[in-house]
């Protein structure tokens, strides 16, 4: 049994934020968890902003508000595209999109969530009635099912997911805290490299198995959040 635990522990790396962000190559697509501030990996986000050579990025995140840490990436001209549901409060980002310097792919929030979930499940596309008949469906394939028009949406995957959890054990299993869970578990499954920021790291066996939401198989790097 001890050999099995040791083998599990070697699958996940425990690094600093700077070391973890150092694994991300330029031009990456990056999923970032969080619904506003709840569930946002702010410690990792600061490290991402600090690494100035990282450019030509695609961000997949629910929103990119003008007060977000990640907005610094936009202000430093390091983002080529953002994919998400809520950008209207960031007037400069909207202006940049209209001027053609940043691409925005806007998805209804339910579609956004489902696209990530299905991306993690290996399903490349899906039909949904959401957005049918609106500008968001323009240029997309549609079909009628049960007398209702549906839009074909592409599932979402990424090179990297940067997420937030409450606790991790030394195998990499994750539990979340209330609504801070939001998009994080789905994003953990939909990226080639998953980096998670946690408040606490505990021994294997300390987490209640019934409360583990993300199993270690989806986690590559764990970073303990620093108090700031």
TrEMBL record:
This is CoA transferase subunit A. Keywords: Transferase. It comes from Neobacillus rhizophilus. InterPro entries: 3-oxoacid_CoA-transf_A, CoA_trans_fam_I, NagB/RpiA_transferase-like. Signal peptide: none annotated. Gene3D superfamilies: Glutaconate Coenzyme A-transferase. It comes from the Bacteria. One of its GO terms (molecular function) is CoA-transferase activity.
